Amino acid sequence: MQDRFKDSGVEVLGESLLKPGSGRRWLVAALLVICLLWLSLVLADTHTPLRGAWREATRGDTPASVMAAFRQGAFKAFNPALLKRFPRDALGSWVVLQPTADNAGEEHVLSIYPAPMGSVTLYGEQGPIRTLAMDDFEGDFHGHGRLAFRLADGKPLSTPILLKFEPSDTLTAPERFELQGLDDFLREDSNWLTFATACFAIMVAMALMALCFAIMLRDVTFAWYTGYMLCYVVVQGVETGFLFHPLGLSWLAGSEVLVGASAVALSVSFAALFISRFCDIQHYAPALRVPVVALGFAMPLIVLLRCSGIAELVVMAQTLVNPVLILGALLLLFTALVTGARGSRQAWFFLTGWTPLLVLTAMTSAQTTGALQNMDWLNDASIAMGAFEAIVLSLGLADRALTMRRDRDSVRVLADRDALTNILNRRAWTEAANRMLSTPNSERSIALLFLDLDHFKLLNDLQGHAAGDRALVAVAEMLSSELRPTDLLGRYGGEEFVAMLHDVNQEQAMQVATRLCRRVHRLEIPVNLDDLRLSVSIGLAMRSMGDTLETMIERADQAMYYVKLHGRNQVHAYERRAEYSTRHPFSPPRKGSE
């Protein structure tokens, strides 16, 4: 039952994904949906133009003094539509945004994208109005993938907006600002939420499917893929705030930095362990197996150091993590290239799915240094590319599953087939015959033929074993062509063959056996120079009440020996008669038998 369940699962996965055209159509459809959703975000332009200025916070700052400094030109100008990184390692930074258009009477929303890891405070003339962070669960208005301040209705839009990026000890990423009408914001927010949900759903679905196959096939490769993909989901979920809004995982509040860093490290670990088996490093690049597996075990150790709470160990982990991540990514890329070049089919699946994501990660890291300021879409592209990678690697896993199934079936065929004649060997034939006898339909008539080649030992002695092998092959091919595909034919041993026929009565079985007997003789395989030809003696036994395979073989064997003693090259059916005795245990030939 378990084998059938495994075969069924692999067949459904493989044939649905990898049969000509099907996998490509699914992949193209999924990518088309993701791209359309993403383009709707990238091409949307519904914001009110802004001018921006900033400076680092100093002690004694008040909203009034900050705004006075802004009006005096003491702030540094920047373009709010481009990504900008603000220092937050001391007292934080002040940011002033000046709308350049006034749409009075319409409620507006100020959004900061991507959502910063720390908190941001909106100030008014009297002091702070509201502080927002990704893990903020107060109020009922939240942005998805960004921080969103809902501005007071009725206030002139031309009034400068004062923000403070609060101090934070985390690595800060660049942000951009957007001022929109409430309706436009809600529409864009809904589009982003649909896009992100679709991407995360694809990643989680592929991971859970792989987990099911890991259990069904007992292949840890699928489990490593599941761990890698789920860790990547956590990484993106933390960076975009998706875990907090809309998922509402409030218990993660305050620990998102630790959770994100741990997920990054573990994703690399799972990726290393995954690639070691998925790309078959042991076969294609054995020299790289040790460093790849070492990377897989090193990253969890760094996570443990990071979570230890011991200051010295935490600092050590923070120092090690980035160099190890960079070297690990390069190692995995190099390993996939080497194994792919040496013939690993799965390595190209890995490279197709993982390389674009690696490029996007490198570009996102470059943004923290001030580069690529106009590419604010990189964060959303990383989510889309994660879904793309999940689909591509799932196709690779399906290909691996089908390959495993084909290899297993090939081994099973080799184990079940006689090496010389390519028909069922004795063990496989016995198992198949027992299954046929155990059919629930007890009225089903079954006949068993026991065939033994005549003069075969003489043929071997006179012409050699090579001639005997050729004779066995010729007889086996003839028997296979004469019997129905659903009949069971096997080599019982030496020059003995067995055949089980279903849904035939004794008269029909005798006709089949007689035809086989004649066909063997018409092969005209010479035994000696005296015109002696190879022939076959066949014993027939019909299933009766209480029969087992052993009892049927025994009766057919006795009937075959009767033929041997009475002239060979004919058929005899075993019959239960009172005149059977130890002295003369065989009945005379049936009328019409040869």
Automatic annotation (TrEMBL):
Gene3D superfamilies: 3.30.70.270
Enzyme class, spelled out: transferase
Keywords on record: Membrane, Transmembrane, Transmembrane helix
InterPro entries assigned: 7TMR_DISM_rcpt_extracell_dom1, Diguanylate_Cyclase, GGDEF_dom, Nucleotide_cyclase, Rev_trsase/Diguanyl_cyclase
EC numbers: 2.7.7.65
Domain named GGDEF: residues: 444-576
Spans through the membrane: 26-44, 192-215, 222-245, 257-275, 287-305, 320-340, 347-365, 377-398
Name of the featured protein: diguanylate cyclase
Organism: Dyella humi
Lineage: Bacteria, Pseudomonadati, Pseudomonadota, Gammaproteobacteria, Lysobacterales
